[in-house]
């Protein structure tokens, strides 16, 4: 059976646990999910898609704002308005269609300026942290036809999470590491659609809709003698736990080097015991940790990379594969810039030569990214 978005598998959550500490600035959860008789088989590097439902309080607030009956079946639909907003439409992230419609039908200087500006950052800054309810509340007198309103939304999307387990180590099970997104302003509390769905609504025994998203590039080498360097701060660690479990199971002879970073060791060192056991049992030959707020000067994974620049370069020269997972906007760019710096330093070359070196790594599929 091939499971997909249109036909997801109904999988049972068998265990969940808060990984981050009491005083962490993050809420990072570990989930264990049974794949039962689904026939789903995954490899390290793959992702699991979860299809969430929307927060009922937000749905009710939108229905009240529209002055609509939750049980009404809108034109051309087969489900009630309540069911549509809970399970079928995206109501956290407003579409540009909705934003432009509102801008055309209300007078709001800041919104109008952001929409009309050639600088796209202005609109992104205006949208930041706001959901559909915020936009339709920019003018409390704005009336929106219900059927038109639905055309201004997009379908509710699945969310994909890097798998944290090896199928060989955990047959018919899959583990996920999810950072629950929560934020607030002076008026309201907000949370991520899927991360809060999992954290607040899904407990042991809960069944959720899932399907596999294979990653054909971000893979361990078939050659078990190949060395790997893994850079994964925060939840970017997830696929590397899978990698290490797999290499342990296969008794791979290739060396493994992990760079992990977070804010504090005591509150944010997720999977600490498992990682230290990998090191103790020599599954991990090298482990570099960067806890940015444990000292006055912030230290990040790229700083740890530079401390070991000669050895990193030697590993690469010897054929190691470099993997990076995590935040695309800042971390991945910082790591890439540090890699360029290391190559320039070690080769005593100019930027053009260092870029050529990196280009060649990518061509050989020895510099692989899974960023979001």
Task: Write up this protein.
There is one protein chain. With 372 residues, the chain is of the alpha/beta class. It is built from 15 helices and 13 strands. It has helices at residues 56-65, 81-87, 96-105, 109-116, 120-127, 132-136, 146-151, 193-201, 238-250, 265-268, 272-280, 301-307, 309-317, 331-347, 351-363, and strands spanning 9-18, 28-34, 47-51, 159-162, 173-179, 182-184, 189-191, 207-213, 228-231, 256-262, 286-291, 321-326, 367-371. The chain has a six-stranded antiparallel β-sheet, with helices on one face. Strands 11-10-9-12-13 form a five-stranded parallel β-sheet, sandwiched between helices. A two-stranded antiparallel sheet has the order 6-7. β6 and β7 form a beta hairpin. α1 (56-65) packs across α2 (81-87), α4 (109-116) crosses α5 and α12 runs parallel beside α14 (331-347). It is globular. The relative contact order is 0.14. The model has no long low-confidence stretch (mean pLDDT 97).
Structure keywords:
372 residues; alpha/beta; five-stranded parallel β-sheet; 15 helices; 13 strands
Number of strand segments: 13
Number of helices: 15
What value does the Rg take, in angstroms?
23 Å
Amount of beta strand: 15-25%
The main sheet comes to: 6 strands, antiparallel
SSE order, as H and E? EEEHHHHHHHEEEEHEEHEHHEHHEHHE
